[in-house]
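On clarity, I found the account of how folds are encoded harder to follow than it need be. Since the whole study asks how a given chain folds, the encoding of that fold should be made plain. For illustration, here is how one protein appears when written out as sequence plus C-alpha cells:

:::
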Amino acid sequence: MTDEARTISSNVKGAAETPVSGGSAAEPAAVWATWGRSGEELPHNIGAGLDAVLSKQPKVALWAEALLLVAGFTALDYMLGVEINLSVFYLIPVIFATWFISRRTGLFIAVLSVALWTAFDRLGGLGSSSPLITWDGLVHLTFFIVVLQLVHIMKESRIREAELARTDSLTGVANGRNFSDRARLELASMRRNHHPLTMAYIDLDRFKHINDTLGHTEGDRVLRTVATAIRSRLRETDIVARLGGDEFGVLFPDTGRDAAPAVLASVKDAVADSVDGSWDIGCTIGGVTFEMAPESVDFMVRSADELMYRGKRAGRDRVEHAVWPGLFVGHDRVETPPTC
C-alpha cells in the first residue's frame, strides 16, 4: 500500500477505489462551526480552576486535606479558647469533603468536627456534663448536616446539567460540542502517540421523506432507533454523536486502514437491521482513516463529510472510505495535503 489516499466505495456487494479530496471538502452541517473552539479553554474564574485541579486528585489526598482542615481549625479553636467561637469555620472541611469526595464522607467530617469542637469546649472549663455544650453540639451537627445535604444536591444538579449539556436530548448520544471536545483530545493523543484514528460521517438516506409523509414524531423515532443501533456496534472507547438533523459522527480511536472498512460496514449493517421492515431509509457513510495527525478537527470532519457526499452522488446507501495522508483531488487538480 502506498501513501496515496485510498478510497473504498462499497455497497452490499462490491467496492471500487477513488481518490479523496481534502481542501475542497464539502461543507458539513452549518451548526458545526458553532461547536468548534480555538485553542485550549481556560477556566473562566479562579474557583473553576481550583475545582478542576482538586477534582483530579486521588481520594486519599482529598481525605488527607479534609482531615488537615479539621485539625487546623481544631488547633486554632483550642488556642483561642471558648471566648471566641470558631464553630462556623468547621463548615469548610465539611463542604470540602462533601463536594470533592462524597456525602457520606462529609457526614463523617461533620460528626468529627462537632465532636472535637465539643470536647475542646469542655476542656476549656465549661464542665464535662454541661447540657449547654451537648445542646450546642447537636444544633451545630444538625446545621452541618443540612448544609452538606444542600451541597450534595447542588453537586448532583451540576453533574446532571453538565451531562445534559453534552448529550443530544432526542437520541441520548453525544451532541456536537461533546464530539468536538473528544475529537480534539483524540487529535492531541495522535500527535503524542502516533496511533491511527478513523472518523465517520453518517447521513440517513430518504429521511426527509419520513418526516414529510409520516410526521416529525415518527422521524424522531427513527433517529432514536438509528442512534441506538450505531452505539450497539461501538467499543467503549468509540463515540457517536448527533451532529444535526439526520447526521451522525463517529470516532474510532486506534482503528487503522485494515480494520476500518469492516468497522464501517458493521455500522451500516446495524442501521439497516434496525430499520428493516419499518422504514424505507438507509444510510451513506463517509469514513477517513488518519494515519498521521491532520491540522485540525475541522479538517477531519470536512474530509469525512465530503466522502459521505460522494457516496450520495454515487447512488446512496454505501460506504466511502479513504486513508490520509495522500494525494487529494480538489477542483480538478491534485494538491499535496497540509502537514502538521
